[in-house]
Amino acid sequence: MTVSTAALPRPAAGRLADAPWLPWCLFIVLVLMWAYNYVVMKVTLQAATPITHLILRTGMSSAALLGVLLARGRAVRPQAPRQAAAVGLSTTLLYSLSVTLALVAGAAGRTSVLVFTMPFWVALLSRGLLAEPFSRPARWALAAGFAGLMLIVAPWQGVSGLLPMSLAVLAGFFWALGSVLTKRATRRMSLDSLNFSAWQAVIGFLPMLLLLPWADFAGIRWSPGFVLGMLYAGLLSSAAGWLAWLWLLRRLSASTLSFNALVIPVLAVLMAAAQLGEWPPLREQGGMLLIGAGILLIARR
Q1: Which of 66, 71, 102, 182 is most deeply packed, by most CB within 10 A?
Q2: Alpha-carbon span 239 to 245, nearest angstrom
């Protein structure tokens, strides 16, 4: 006697993966994890030099992504090496270097807000690299973001603190450039997202090896908190967070996920204020609200 497979009970794991609430729960966890990562990086940078921290963090993340690719039995050979190199140099190398240096002297909350000027850069770069129109809401968003940026940077108060804030904005630019280059690559060819992600991370990490003479591994102030923080930043936030993001992109709309750009810096500011005592002054709060309004306009355009 034959039994219809439709009549057989589905495995519990299959039912769980199809649960409509699961992507939203993972999305909330991911937003909280990425927001808190700014606090974790700020704290762990007190125990290691920036170059040492950068190499350890990105090395763990790149190795983890490549390990997942190998474990899944996917094609290991890079599918689009030139495109992966362009994204890796922008996202893994230049973004990671900029945000690390920005956090050395800059406040964690303020850094997160300035990094998340990324949607404005995406709108500008998409016009030139993807031939996407620059709509009226995007122009208003850019104006609001620029006004907010000026309130935070406050150039009329001198150049004190200008370098870490500039590095944070630059990190947002490199993150945006990597995102636009990724979108352009996926438009032109069919790519395995795990293969592409792993190889861009590895290629972006390799130039960091040239910085080894300036690393100081012997000078690390080891502690359980430092080890846990580095595991959080390198494996949980970077590698696992990126894989979770790819999983969510297949189940939720990109426009819905883009609202994380508004939620993450808000949460990061609150977390940094609560744990590190980094309460932004009223002027910076106004700038953050203007940037948030601009991001909201970009997300809805």
Answers
A1: 102
A2: 10
Per-residue pLDDT, 257 = 59
258-289 confidence digits (pLDDT tens): 555 567 888 888 899 899 988 877 877 787 78
Report d(CA 169, CA 116) in Å as an integer: 8
- Which pairs count as long-range contacts for 123-127, CB under 8 Å and 24+ apart, including other chains? 123/298, 123/301, 125/176, 125/177, 125/180, 126/180, 126/183
| pLDDT for residue 146 is more than 60 | yes
Do the beta carbons of residue 200 and residue 22 sit within 8 Å? no
Nearest to 239 by CA among 96, 114, 115: 96
Give the residue extent of every domain in the chain.
43-300
Three-state SS string over the chain comes to CCCCHHHCCCCHHHHHHCCCHHHHHHHHHHHHHHHHHHHHHHHHCCCCCHHHHHHHHHHHHHHHHHHHHHHCCCCCCCCCHHHHHHHHHHHHHHHHHHHHHHHHHCCHHHHHHHHCCHHHHHHHHHHHHCCCCCCHHHHHHHHHHHHHHHHHHCHHHCCCCHHHHHHHHHHHHHHHHHHHHHHHHHHHCCCCHHHHHHHHHHHHHHHHHHHHHHCCHHHCCCCHHHHHHHHHHHHHHHHHHHHHHHHHHCCCCHHHHCCHHHHHHHHHHHHHHHHHCCCCCHHHHHHHHHHHHHHHHHHHC
Residue with tokens 């709060």: 285
Is the confidence at residue 48, as pLDDT, over 90? yes
Window from 105-109, 138-142, 189-193, 225-229 with minimum mean pLDDT: 138-142
The pLDDT assigned to 253 comes to 57
CB 86 within 8 A of CB 199: no
